[in-house]
Design a protein that fits this description.
heterodimer, A: alpha+beta, Sulfite Oxidase, Chain A, domain 2, 2 domains, five-stranded mixed beta sheet, five-stranded antiparallel beta sheet, 5 helices, B: 136 residues, mainly alpha, Cytochrome Bc1 Complex, Chain D, domain 2
Chain lengths: 432, 136
């Protein structure tokens, strides 16, 4: 009797377990997808090019790739190396070194540097040429730090219409770091600039395979000796209190606060004082902008040959929404915090405004800690979308000199100076 | 035997009903075998204490160029100075823009590409990388 009862109960247990697993299996096969009214979506890869329309993504659509000292970044090109920083890294005011974007011009870029041999040469029109070793650079001059945004001249180039050839960056060819180094002025003073000098030229360890005398052979940039930005320039040996990653210019690079990154020479090896304006390709032909308001023109005007150009210099004011990034719906009534960054190459950020109705109304955001006028400035704004819908969230920054982001793009053949108000669609779903 | 069969049919039907009630508010347990590729982590380097700071070699990620006449000319000329990703990264561009780019490489950057080879490259880019022709 006892035996048979045990047997029954065992059978019951098996049956119950069977029913339970059948329930789960049924849930997998019929119940759930039906209940949600849709099939689960897989993750689809993005096509790796965009155009002829504007790139619709926040960053360029390339694959992720790994490089020495780097987190997986978005690959633009592998030789020379150009890597874009993914959006989420801009949630912090200081961009991590391993996520900082990379852009080289020439294919022969340093893999290794022997500090026993490396010297920073200060030469040209000076009375006392110098060849500074790394310890001399660090110890001979006073160390100073500055927080400054390094942004590629062609950041957001993929937004232009019509599209222009060049590195097809989204918004991630920028980064902010605390740069520590020595003042360029002190180095120049130590070398004693001769009278009659007009410019100072910078060159790094990178070389190209093109013929001598061409831009494909050497990359050099120059600044006027009368340019007040020289007083703020650093030769930096530290980035966020660490040595510079090789791909970001180990052992030292030039910092030109407020100016586009084209002047921020990496793996600096020569500071050359010139007694005549630099007419090398990278000054005379490249990195030039139309001498017009906002540096904008049209393809037709360019073709007419009447557009005068000047070297690019300071970065116009920009701002970005970093999170939420629009990749997931937000439930109606959810108390959201919009967060992002703003910066300007002309002055510190005075105001960031946010519109959640495609620019009809603007609310002033809360500004985060001020790390200096050339740094990213974080901002945040709490927003509770009341009802389901598609919201166009725009961000507009104003700097202390009164420069405001416009709602119009620019066009120039280099694809430079993009600073139109950024918009992000936020989809709000029903919460009940 | 017959009751047993009935028993399983009833349990099965109830299971489906129960599942719809139990799991009506969420979806779980789905995995796709076709996700994006993973990325390997790299071994940490063995570091020396000398004065050489070595980041190692930079990886090449060779893109797939469109097959067709002129591809060999691209490989043998353009790739001397830069990766073909300088082509595949670009948006779909009009044929004239590609011609301008090739001419810029020759005249402005000093690439020693003979005229007939340059024409083949221009023809190739204009045949595979324009808004009308670009496929990948």
């Amino acid at each position: 009797m006892a035996g048979s009862q045990k047997c029954v109960s065992r059978r019951r247990v098996i049956k119950t377990l069977g029913a339970a697993s059948a329930t789960l299996a049924a849930a997998q096969i019929f119940g759930i997808a039906d209940a949600m009214g849709q099939e689960p979506s897989g993750q689809q890869s993005v096509q790796e090019f965009t155009g002829p329309g504007a790139n619709p993504y926040w960053t360029s659509p390339g694959q992720f790739a790994t490089y020495p000292q780097k987190a997986p970044l978005i690959l633009l090109t592998d030789r020379p190396v150009q890597l874009e920083t993914p959006r989420q890294y801009f949630l912090s005011t200081f961009t991590p070194n391993d996520a900082f974007f990379v852009r080289w011009h020439l294919q022969t870029i340093p893999n290794a540097v022997d500090l026993k041999e490396w010297r920073l040469h200060v030469e040209g029109n000076v009375e006392r040429p110098l060849a500074l070793s790394f310890p001399e650079l660090v110890a001979r001059f006073k160390s100073v730090s500055v927080a400054a945004v390094n942004q590629c001249s062609g950041n957001s180039r993929s937004r232009l219409q019509p599209r222009v050839a060049g590195g097809q960056w989204g918004n991630g060819a920028m980064g902010n770091a605390a740069w520590t180094g020595v003042k360029l002025r002190e180095i120049l003073d130590a070398a004693r600039v001769k009278s009659g000098s007009v410019q100072v030229q910078f060159e790094g360890l990178d070389r190209g395979l093109g013929p001598k005398g061409f831009g494909s052979n050497r990359f050099m940039k120059s600044l006027d000796l009368t340019d007040s930005v020289l007083d703020e320039c650093l030769v930096a040996f530290a980035m966020n209190a660490e040595p510079l990653p090789m791909l970001n210019g180990f052992p030292a690079r030039l910092i030109v606060p407020g100016y586009f990154a084209t002047y921020w020479l990496k793996s600096l090896s020569a500071i050359r004082v010139l007694d005549a304006p630099d007419d090398n390709f990278w000054m005379k032909a490249a990195y030039r902008i139309p001498d017009t308001p906002r540096g904008t023109t049209t393809p037709e005007e360019m073709k007419s040959g009447k557009v005068a150009t000047v070297p690019i210099t300071r970065m116009p004011v920009r701002s970005f929404l970093i999170t939420p990034d629009g990749s997931m719906k937000i439930p109606a009534g959810f108390p959201l915090r919009l967060r992002g960054i703003a910066f300007s190459g002309y002055a510190g950020i005075k105001k960031v405004e946010v519109s959640t109705d495609n620019g009809a109304n603007w609310s002033e955001a809360h500004l985060g800690e001020d790390a200096g006028e050339y740094s990213f400035r974080s901002w945040s704004l709490d927003w509770t979308p009341k009802s389901a819908g598609r919201y166009s969230v725009g961000v507009r920054a104003t700097d202390a000199k009164g420069n405001v982001q416009p709602d119009e793009g620019v066009w120039n053949p280099g694809g430079y100076l993009w600073n139109k108000i950024e918009r992000q669609e936020i989809v709000v779903g029903n919460a009940s | 035997m017959r009751t047993r069969k009935w028993y399983f049919m009833v349990v099965g039907a109830l299971s489906i009903l129960a599942a719809r009630v139990l799991y009506a508010d969420f979806r779980a347990g789905y995995y796709t075998p076709t996700g994006p590729e993973t990325i390997h982590q790299t071994l940490p380097d063995v570091l020396s204490t000398d004065a050489t700071y070595d980041a190692g070699q930079y990886p090449i990620y060779y893109p797939e160029l469109a097959p067709g006449e002129g591809k060999a000319e691209v490989e043998n000329n353009c790739e001397l100075c830069h990766s073909p990703r300088y082509i595949t990264m670009q948006p779909a561009l009009p044929a004239q823009v590609w011609a301008d780019e090739v001419n810029k490489m020759r005249k402005t950057f000093g690439a020693s590409i003979p005229e007939d080879t340059a024409q083949k490259i221009i023809q190739y880019l204009g045949s595979h990388y324009t808004p009308e022709t670009r496929k990948r």
